[in-house]
Write a structure and sequence with these properties.
This protein is 18% helix and 30% strand. It has 274 residues and is an alpha/beta fold. The strands form three sheets. A seven-stranded mixed sheet has the order 10-9-8-7-11-12-15, with helices on both faces. Strands 4-3-6-1-2-5 form a six-stranded antiparallel sheet. Strands 13-14 form a two-stranded antiparallel ribbon. The longest helix has 14 residues, at 208-221. The protein is globular. The mean pLDDT is 95. Bound molecules: flavin-adenine dinucleotide and FE2/S2 (inorganic) cluster.
Amino acid sequence: MDPMVPHPYKIRRVIKETHDTFTLELKSDTSGGKFSFNAGQFNMLYLFGIGEVPISISGDPNKIETLVHTTRAVGTVTKEMAKLKRGDVIGVRGPYGTNWPITEAIGNDVVIIAGGIGLAPLRPAIHQIISQRKNYGKIILLYGTRTPADILFRRELEKLKSRLDIDIYVTVDHATREWSGNVGVVTTLIPRAPFDPINTTAIICGPEIMMRYTISELIKRGVPNENIFLSIERNMKCGVGLCGHCQYGTKFICKDGPVFSYAQIKHLFGKREL
Ligand SMILES: Cc1cc2nc3c(=O)[nH]c(=O)nc-3n(C[C@H](O)[C@H](O)[C@H](O)COP(=O)(O)OP(=O)(O)OC[C@H]3O[C@@H](n4cnc5c(N)ncnc54)[C@H](O)[C@@H]3O)c2cc1C
Ligand code: FES
């Protein structure tokens, strides 16, 4: 199949997650209705006549009958995408890119650290790790958003919180009167999170500045560089390593990433334009 040709997917369900973020559940009529992917991979979503954007898959890798994407409306394409309704059709190319180190983390504690919309690309990893719970040590989710209204997948988080074998800490930068949880940036949760640094795999997704401070806190705790993984975002065009749009030093984010170990990109990370 030509990797540059989008396939039509029909929208089966639209879920409004927050004021600016929505989830689309999609189904193909042509590919036998199944979409296999690895946690951390993304698709190029094409809004006919408007444009194409890379969006991570946010569904459960064990449930391949429905393709799920969670998107924040920030600009030209994503704001139009936010207007789509059940029954509308969009183009899908993918899955592309590297995945979260689900297998490599076996035997370790797993610390999942998300900022804002960053919880969406991490959600498939959470599903997969939980479905193989006995393979891991402690599982800890640290999630930070700007305000309580920005918290994604609330019901799912509540359900996870009721489990005794997963630790979930949510924090907000700015509290409202009804909020009785943590206040402060997500990095403030790291020093007291109960994981064994040497035997920990950390997976991180969020704004780059948040990931920078998060990595610094993890290293302070003693987590090795090669056990820290992050997903990097840049503008993309082809998504398959042909156009050079997403070049990151000697790497292409679409093909060599978006998930990298910190050890791989330490020399590039934090530089604004490469
Ligand atoms: C591998 C990969 C995976 C991604 N996964 C997701 C995902 O799961 N969910 C999701 O919502 N987004 C995701 N993104 C980001 C998404 O691709 C961009 O938000 C999108 O391309 C913006 O396109 P646009 O046409 O709507 O905005 P544009 O018209 O290109 O941008 C308009 C304005 O928004 C600003 N802007 C652009 N992107 C962002 C951003 N990410 N955050 C804040 N401001 C921004 C621009 O600086 C500009 O000012 C991912 C990106 C990559 C590379
Ligand atoms: S988007 Fe074309 S090379 Fe990565």
